[in-house]
Amino acid sequence: GQVREAGEGGGGHLRQGVQGAGGGDGAAGGAQEDPPRDGRGGDPAHRAALSVEQVTKPCGKTVLYLVFEFLDTDLKKFVDGFRKGPSPRPLPTQVVKSFLYQLCKGTAHCHGHGVLHRDLKPQNLLIDKEKGVLKIADLGLSRAFTVPMKSYTHEIVTLWYRAPEVLLGATHYSTGVDIWSIGCIFAEMVRRQALFPGDSELQQLLHIFRLLGTPNEEKWPGVCALRDWHDYPQWKPQHLSRAVPTLEPEGLDLLAKMLQFDPANRISAKAAMDHPYFDSLDKSQF
Predict the structure, then answer these.
(1) How confident is the model at residue 123 (pLDDT cuts 50, 70, 90)?
(2) Does the keyword ATP-binding apply (predicted)?
(3) What is the CA angle 283-80-213, rounded to 5?
(4) What is the CATH number of the domain that holds 87?
(5) Are residues 136 and 241 in the same domain?
(6) Long-range CB contacts (within 8 A, 24+) of 245-248
(7) Which residues of 250-277 are buried (b: 16+ CB within 10 A; e: fewer)?
(8) 273 and 174 in one domain?
């Protein structure tokens, strides 16, 4: 079909195309990359969500296509709409549940294919307000071997959703880094403000330790051997309800399972989908 340039991601330009049999507007990115150029194409108000579609060609070769969909807002702007403006109000509980469930489902899909996202944050979660749909965008870091301090556009990468093992210089990490980010995003939907808004790696750790207590070898075996571990001030853990007082007990339980210091103890995205917090949600719509 017809293809035109629609903007660029970290790995080259995205091309917006008219899909054939699949129907609907979308964009397919093959493996080929265009040379970088200045300026960004496309309408910045419409960001692209990414999904991977497996296509088996007649010759028997399987090709993976990256498919981009264009959605109207992101979770940061969506939450800001409830926090600011003439009538500040909390997000409806069912909206929080729905978006969190969709985020867990999308992340479980990534993890099931051996892909870590590594930069989950509200700005990377695209929302279709009409349909109540949330999609994960920007898998730009998922192919990288290190988590950069700056993104390819030289913006500072936000630290607010970064897991403690990454902040402490762990070189090997796993799916738990995404689960930590999801926990921070969950709390932010309920609070309408960031849970751990640090402006440096040290401040970020101290925000975490003040709420969850300072970790030690007993709580998190191996923590003292991490590259950037120091003797931090000793704080006792607070109850999570101090940070998210309006969250129901089942929600607090799920949040606690996501914000475990030891990544090995964090709940998986797949297990999170079965947590009782989602019992009141009609999952068949997803």
Answers:
(1) very high
(2) yes
(3) 80
(4) 1.10.510.10
(5) yes
(6) 246/90, 246/190, 247/187, 247/190, 248/93, 248/277
(7) ebbebbebbbbbebeebbbbeebbebeb
(8) yes
- 79 and 170 share a domain? yes
User: Looking at the structure, do residues 135 and 95 belong to the same domain, yes or no?
Assistant: yes
Instruction: Report the side by side order of strands in the sheet with 125-128.
Output: 73-74, 125-128, 133-136
* Cα separation, 93 vs 192, whole angstroms: 12
Give CA–CA dist 123/230, Å, rounded.
32
Q: Give the domain range for residue 87.
A: 72-285
> Whole-model pTM?
0.75
How many residues appear in the chain? 286
Check residues 85 and 186 and name the one with the higher pLDDT. 186
Which residues are the active-site residues? 119
Q: Distances in Å between the alpha carbon of 19 and those of 26, 67, 69, 198?
A: 6, 10, 11, 43
Q: Domain check: are 66 and 89 in the same one?
A: no
64 — pLDDT class (breaks 50, 70, 90): low
Q: Are 113 and 180 part of one and the same domain?
A: yes
* pLDDT digits 0-9 by tens, 244-285: 999 999 999 999 999 999 999 999 999 999 999 999 999 999
Q: Two tokens at 47? A: 């960001």
